[in-house]
Amino acid sequence: ELRIKYKESVRCEYITVQEYNSLTGESVQLDDRYTKLLIIQKHRKQKEREEELRSRGNSHQEVMNKRDSDMFMSINVEKLFDPDENGVVHKTVILQGQAGIGKSFTTQKIMSDWASGKIYSDFEYIFHIKCQQLNLISKNISVVDLILYNCQDLKPAVAQVLSCPEKILFIIDGFDELKFSLDVPQYSLCHDPHEQNTPQVTLSSLIRKAILSKAFLLITTRSTTLDKLTKVLKQPRYTEILGFSEEGMKEYFKNFFQNEQQALCAFNNVKKNEIVFTACFIPGVCWIVCTMLREKMDENTDIKQALTTTTTIFVYFVYTLLEHHCKSGSLPVQDILQRLGVLAESGIQEQQVLFEEKQIKNTFSDPSQAPSSFLNKIILKKGISNKTVFSFMHLSFQEFFAAFSYIMCDEQESEKKVTELLRESEDKGHLLSTIQFLFGLSNQETQDFINEKYNRSISPAVQSQLEGWIKERLKKVTEHTKGADLMAMLHCLYEIHDEDFVRGALESLTNIFLSYYPLKRTDCAVLSYCLQAWGDIERLDLQTCLLKPECLEVLIPGLHKCKDLK
């Protein structure tokens, strides 16, 4: 009877969740937000990691689809404690993933589905231990205390609960957030679930199986503390959340909007923007995008105008991580952003997405200060040993932080560095993505947000540099200019999203020659925006651009500006 009551209390507690922007008393149904995530069990090689970090758009989705296969041992949440390929049942499972990828959301879904009788029926009890809350406990506690923190009503049944430890699952959520280590001597561990000790000793005893050795454990963590865990765990099953596949994204939009037509409209709108579409593999980005789109729908605004720029989405996501996913007591926000920018910029210059440990030490004198909200720690096999490298969530985020570094330094240094960046981009095409983000950071609305939150903005001198640079490059455009170079310029104009600026920059351009350049949906959205902001143009040549019907649909609003269209 008490177990039934406990399940009911769990079901009531986890049936709803609060969102980042929820007001007091507001919540949403968990099932309206939770969507199946791609989880794999295989450690990837360096080449595979780089493939994930560098690919974009459809190529990135192809990579994610490859990961969702037997080759990478993909697994569903409900099968985490099933026998592995060798028939071994692992009593401890590690669920690893980067910030905002859905680890804690997954634990909430497990609690809700177990209480509703949908999964894990072999477990009579599941207890959710949040490491963030453990940090607040200063007195001695026992494992029994941890159980009763979940439900005081179980007090009369503690003996019965403990009598079948093999039917108990402890979910230890947010291991990376612990302020203490598990580095407790073996002789100091306790063996009695009633014995009270420091939170460090009690949790260490539970995780290291000194207490309730037959109980099951599910431990969620970021990659930064994975090596500490593996030192003390016996034969854990390793799993990693990679985020959403394309099907997962579609399902998330469907769940979020609760209206199939709106969901499809929103999803197709996002798919036009290759970088945002790629970043939506992270549930946190998906939530920001859907929230912005729904707000526009509620205002009866054309949602094509909702996702103004890629930079805006990235700025909001970084703010969300800093507000909700950064450890307290770490470096000041300005320091974090400045150092991440320096690291990102050095990597972009060298076309490097995996950083050596010494590079992290050079940027963050104390490597423990490197923010795990933005940097992933990766252990790779190298010969007879292992090596540690770090990466941003994706190359797009690295390019964004590289651009952000130019507004985190003083005005004089910023001007000097931007001059150098613009000059080097003439021969190094890979720098153009960073320049596009720099234009995005010059957007007035984005500048206002950054200034309000971080007291930083792009100086008028740098804005003048950007304007002069793009006008000069556009003046040199001829029918022999490469399509990729011209589109890169138009992407810069799209990111600043200022029609007066765009018209001024394009005044010298009367013809656009993009023939034989395969246009993506993203390119078509950018071209359409620039055409609409423009005056009339003499000629637009799109011959052999491999335009698909959905690309033409995106282009249509701007085509009437063209006198001669091929």
UniProtKB/TrEMBL annotation:
Entry keyword tRNA-binding: no
Keyword Cytoplasm assigned: yes
Cell compartments where the protein resides: Cytoplasm
Matches recorded under Pfam families: FISNA, NACHT, NLRC4_HD2, WHD_NOD2
Cellular component annotations (GO), alphabetically ordered: cytoplasm
Family annotation (SMART domains): FISNA
Keywords: ATP-binding, Cytoplasm, Inflammatory response, Nucleotide-binding, Repeat, Ubl conjugation
InterPro entries (alphabetical): NACHT-assoc, NACHT_NTPase, NLRP_HD2, NLRP_innate_immun_reg, NOD1/2_WH, P-loop_NTPase
Chief location bin: cytoplasm
Descriptive protein name: NACHT, LRR and PYD domains-containing protein 3
Any GO BP annotation: inflammatory response
GO MF terms held by the record: ATP binding
Domain NACHT: 91-408
Top-level taxon of origin: Eukaryota
Organism: Acipenser ruthenus
